[in-house]
Amino acid sequence: MAKKKSEKENRCVDGNGRLVIPSEMRAKLGLTAGSEVDFQLDGQQIILRKYNPGCIFCGGKGELLIFEGKRICTVCHAKLKAMD
Ligand SMILES: [Zn+2]
């Protein structure tokens, strides 16, 4: 299996701790203005991921429905419907 080629780019953190995510990387992850990201501190590195919470019940990331602003997968939705 071929190893995925990673991309690297240097950026400077400004005086307020801000940095710019390279535009090509933003485009590849679909990060646009208002997109949320997660930061994870792992030893001496910070891992940044696009925020993708999944279903509020099972954490699944399959087909999601939005109800009252919460994400519910179609499997959990079907289980809820079967409850009545
Ligand atoms: Zn679910």
How would you characterize this protein structure?
The chain is of the alpha+beta class. The protein folds into two domains: 34 residues, no CATH class; 32 residues, no CATH class. Helices cover 18% and strands 24% of the residues. The chain has two helices and four strands; from the N terminus they run H-E-E-E-E-H. The strands form two sheets. Strands 1-2 form a two-stranded antiparallel ribbon. The chain has a two-stranded antiparallel ribbon with strand order 3-4. The protein starts with 22 loop residues before the first helix and ends with a helix. Zinc ion binds next to helix 2.
* Rg: 18 Å
Spatial arrangement of strands, main beta sheet: 1-2
Mean of all residue-level pLDDT scores: 90
H/E order of the elements? Answer: HEEEEH
SS-derived structural category: alpha+beta
Number of domains: 2
How many DSSP-defined strands? Answer: 4
- Outline type: elongated
Give the cofactors and ligands.
Answer: zinc ion
Percent helix, as a range, is 10-25%
Number of helices: 2
Largest sheet data:
2 strands, antiparallel
Q: What percent strand?
A: 15-25%
